[in-house]
Each structure stands twice: as C-alpha cells, then as structure tokens.
Amino acid sequence: MSDTQLTKDPISDDIRAAMAISLRGCDELLPQDDWLKKLTRSAQTGQPLRIKLGLDPTAPDIHLGHTVVLNKMRQLQDLGHQVIFLIGDFTTLIGDPSGRNSTRPPLTPEQIKANAETYYTQAAKVLDPSKTEVRYNSEWSDALGARGLIQLAAKYTVARMMERDDFHKRFHEGNSISLHEFLYPLLQGYDSVALKSDLELGGTDQKFNLLMGRHLQQEHGQEPQCVLTMPLLVGLDGVYKMSKSKNNYVGITEDANTMFAKILSISDDLMWDWFTLLSFMSLPEIAALKLEIEGGRNPKDAKVLLAKEITARFHSAAAAEAAEQDFINRAKGGVPDEIPELSLPLGEGGALGIGQLLKQAGLAPSSSEANRLVDGGGVRVDSSVVSDKGLKLAAGTYVVQVGKRKFARVTLA
C-alpha cells in the first residue's frame, strides 16, 4: 500500500488514540507525519511496528528516571507492537559521550557483563517479558570488523559530527575528544539498521544519536525510523535530573517502605510531572485529580496515590499498603513492625556512649557524624530526642532512631 493511499484514507479513532499515547509526555516525535503513516500501515496490514530502546549497562541498577522511556515502551507494547530491548554491551566499551565534557572511561567487559545480567530482570518489571525481544549489539558490531567499521565511518562527515552540542562545546573549550567517541553515535545508529527499527526511543540527550539511526538507515536503503524523545525525569531534589551521583534517585530495587517514603517527599509541583511520566493513570484521570487539588483537596492525597501505584508496580499492592501504614506510623513517631535487631557489648564502666552506639549499629558512618546528628536533633532513643552528645546508655534494650527512616532495636549487654 502506497503512502499516497494512506494519506487519502480517513484516520480511524484507533489510530488517533495510538498517536495520543505516543505523544503523551514526550518531548519530540520526529517526524510526526511519518509515524502516523507507520501506525496507519500497521493497522491496515496487521504487521506490528518494531520499536527499539537501547540502554548501556553502565551501572547494575535502574532508577525511576530510566523507567520513563520503559513506560513509553510498555504503552506501545500494549498497542500490539514489537518492542526490542537492546543491551549495548558493545557500545558500552566505548562509553556514550552524550552530555559529557570529558572522555568517559570505558568499562571492562567483566563489568559490562555483570551489569547486563541484572538490567533486563529489572526492566521486565515494566515491560511484558513474553512480548519483548532482547538483543545485544555485540551480535552485529563484533561482526563488522575493521573493514565494516571503515565503511560505516565513510557514511558520515566530521563536520556534521562536530555539530553535535557536546562535541562542539568541548572542542571550543579546549577539552579533549577522543576519536573513538565519534564511533559511538555511528554504532548506535547502525543498531537501527541491524534491527530494521521503525521507531527508536531515548532521552532528550540522545537526539543526535537517534537521528543518526535515521541517516544510516537511509544510507542502507531502509525506510528511516521515527524518533521519540522523552524528558529527563527531575529527581527528588526538584532541581537536577535523577541520578545516583546527585543522590536524588529512587531505585526500582529499593525496599517498598523506602520507595514509598521517597516518592512522598517530592514537591507538590514536581508531582504532576511524575504523574505524566511515571503513572499509568490516563491523562483525563490525572487532569480530574489536579482539579480536585486546585479545588481544595490535600495535595498529599494525590502524592499518596502516586507513591502507592509506583510501589505496587515494583513490589505488590500489599507491600504498597504496608508501606503507607509504615509511613503513617513513622510520622506519628511510631516504630515500624520490622526493624533490625542487634546486640552490642558495653564499654568501659558498663555503659556505651551514644556516638559509639550509632556507629556500631550502622546508623551513622562515624562518631563525628553521630555527634552532628545529635546536635541536629535527629536522634531518638525510645522515642525521646537525644540532646546530649555525652549520653551513655547502660545495659538494656533500646529502640534507636536516626532521622525518619532509620531504626534499630539495640540490646546492650
């Protein structure tokens, strides 16, 4: 069926709905007309579209920021399309230069293998494993060899490569750019050729690499893929994108109580972006909830809904309910049902100082940090705030609390 015929046929409600799902929360969909044609052709022929997401296993764990694109993949998967979860075991050897102001040190093959082993297991908490094609780009990148790599490099110019923002900035600031970094976008683009993808997803920082896939597919005589970029999720601090280095993240393997409490800590304004990018609620449902909040309903009610939905996704509905109750107990100064229990020896004179107790119980990294916590009013023993850094505890059992979420039942003997 020709594109001319497709454009003449009226757009069905199903296609409009699929386009709305595609656009939900996205930053850009390029070119939209091409994606509409692909959706229409797929509906008329019954042939699912091939939708690709590549992730380099640079770390062993995935946080909620990574799930923004995984959520979009799941939405498109639920429309009946074929999603391809691509693990970039070969490209990780180079290191993605996106957003970098210096050469990224590559990981060893051993590190990559160890990280890749946990990556898909975690991603499968969002994607439907029975409908997901898992691939590794070493399958075709290794086979390229020196000759194939030279032929691939001939399909792009240095001038166009230097149009890339991070390369352009580094060059003019006098920061080094290694030649192997030019290979990264070429190889990511070649992944699209190897997989014959119709759509590639990524964060806004991946736009150059995603467009490279379109270019190389055209060079290889394929219909070019469309490109869908998703915003980078702002972390718990409400300022920077979610990352472990900023310690503003929610890991999807964190325990339910911690996950719930972290999500509840975000600002009322940030909450709505998280609803759009992370919740599976429909946009009309989110809009109705927002109207209720604007009409006087407590914003915390909406935040609790979000925290329970996400916690249930990565744990269970029962775990989410328990996490909510745990949070309520802590807010009231109560003690969670399950806390670590340990025994510590008494010090000289038959007592143990509060600083040493916190350190030995793993509630503070050092005695000096323990003292700082006491000074800040963040330490409680049996629900009473400790204000004396010189406090010594005699033999007995105590419930020790640091901050809102750290507890231990300590027996001194």
UniProtKB/TrEMBL annotation:
<dbReference type="Pfam" id="PF01479">
    <property type="entry name" value="S4"/>
</dbReference>
<dbReference type="InterPro" id="IPR001412">
    <property type="entry name" value="aa-tRNA-synth_I_CS"/>
</dbReference>
<keyword id="KW-0963">Cytoplasm</keyword>
<dbReference type="InterPro" id="IPR014729">
    <property type="entry name" value="Rossmann-like_a/b/a_fold"/>
</dbReference>
<dbReference type="InterPro" id="IPR002307">
    <property type="entry name" value="Tyr-tRNA-ligase"/>
</dbReference>
<dbReference type="InterPro" id="IPR024108">
    <property type="entry name" value="Tyr-tRNA-ligase_bac_2"/>
</dbReference>
<keyword id="KW-0030">Aminoacyl-tRNA synthetase</keyword>
<dbReference type="Pfam" id="PF00579">
    <property type="entry name" value="tRNA-synt_1b"/>
</dbReference>
<protein>
    <recommendedName>
        <fullName>Tyrosine--tRNA ligase</fullName>
        <ecNumber>6.1.1.1</ecNumber>
    </recommendedName>
</protein>
<keyword id="KW-0547">Nucleotide-binding</keyword>
<comment type="subunit">
    <text>Homodimer.</text>
</comment>
<keyword id="KW-0648">Protein biosynthesis</keyword>
<feature type="short sequence motif" description="'KMSKS' region">
    <location>
        <begin position="241"/>
        <end position="245"/>
    </location>
</feature>
<feature type="short sequence motif" description="'HIGH' region">
    <location>
        <begin position="57"/>
        <end position="66"/>
    </location>
</feature>
<feature type="binding site">
    <location>
        <position position="244"/>
    </location>
    <ligand>
        <name>ATP</name>
    </ligand>
</feature>
<dbReference type="InterPro" id="IPR002305">
    <property type="entry name" value="aa-tRNA-synth_Ic"/>
</dbReference>
<keyword id="KW-0694">RNA-binding</keyword>
<keyword id="KW-0067">ATP-binding</keyword>
<keyword id="KW-0436">Ligase</keyword>
<dbReference type="InterPro" id="IPR024088">
    <property type="entry name" value="Tyr-tRNA-ligase_bac-type"/>
</dbReference>
<feature type="domain" description="RNA-binding S4">
    <location>
        <begin position="352"/>
        <end position="413"/>
    </location>
</feature>
<dbReference type="InterPro" id="IPR036986">
    <property type="entry name" value="S4_RNA-bd_sf"/>
</dbReference>
<dbReference type="GO" id="GO:0004831">
    <property type="term" value="F:tyrosine-tRNA ligase activity"/>
</dbReference>
<comment type="function">
    <text>Catalyzes the attachment of tyrosine to tRNA(Tyr) in a two-step reaction: tyrosine is first activated by ATP to form Tyr-AMP and then transferred to the acceptor end of tRNA(Tyr).</text>
</comment>
<dbReference type="InterPro" id="IPR002942">
    <property type="entry name" value="S4_RNA-bd"/>
</dbReference>
<comment type="similarity">
    <text>Belongs to the class-I aminoacyl-tRNA synthetase family. TyrS type 2 subfamily.</text>
</comment>
